[in-house]
Amino acid sequence: SDVEITPVRKKDKKSSGINAEWPLRPGEEVEFMHSILNDYHAYVVERGGKVLLPQYLAMYRITVSGVEHYMIIMRNVLASNGLRIHKQYHLKGSTVDREATDKDKSKTNPRLKDLDFLKDDIKIHIGGDKKKEVLEILDSDVKFLSQLKIMDYSILLGIHNIAQVDIIFVIIIPFEIWN
After folding, report:
1. What are the residues whose beta carbons fall under 8 Å from the beta carbon of 49, sequence distance 6 or more?
2. pLDDT value for 11
3. Checking phi first, is residue 27 left (phi over 0); if not, alpha (psi -120 to 50) or beta?
């Protein structure tokens, strides 16, 4: 079939159906990304990259047999340091429908949810200066997201076990990407 991959530019406003496996729906979500990307880039640069937000690399429109699909390419921060993530949680701060399904839990490295986190009785201990730094970054990121009027965000928590010590990686997801 005829395939065309095109970087999406702000002037491109055409859209049509999208397959469920693509993370970005056409229309409002594409327009929303366009509306925040300049501010997002400026914020990340101003903060010298010290943010816990997703790291967007590109947005593409892919046309397959005349049907347009959209996707965002993001850096996988949980895999970027070369450490194996033994457990991960997608936390939204709610317990309503926030437990991984049995099907999800049967996966090799499932993305668990808020109720799973509570049941596992996970405690996060960040000491001294690192705690102050993480809280300052979180505070700044939340203020930035508030300025953009984004209130549906979550935390992706990855745990890498080194003997008895856990290393925690956290990023904020500013809008729903995963089902």
Report:
1. none
2. 35
3. left
Asked if 51 and 39 touch (Cβ cutoff 8 Å), the reply is: no
Residue pointed to by tokens 């033994």: 86
| 67-75 and 55-64 beta bridge pairing | antiparallel
Q: What is the largest CA-CA distance in the chain?
A: 57
Provide the 10 A C-beta neighbour count for residue 15. 19
Residue-by-residue DSSP string for 30-99: HHHHHHHHHHHHHHHHHTTT---S-EEEEEEEEEETTEEEEEEEEE-TTTTTSPPP-EEEEE-S--TT-S
Nearest alpha-carbon partner for 156 in 104, 96, 58, 85: 85
Choice between 91 and 9, residue whose per-residue pLDDT is larger = 91
pLDDT confidence band for 104 (50 / 70 / 90): very high
Token pair in block for residue 87: 């457990």
- pLDDT one-digit tens code per residue, 107-118: 988 899 999 999
Cβ neighbours for 136, distance < 8 A, ≥ 6 positions apart:
none
pLDDT in tens, 62-86: 888 888 888 888 877 776 666 777 8
Residue-level pLDDT at 21:
29
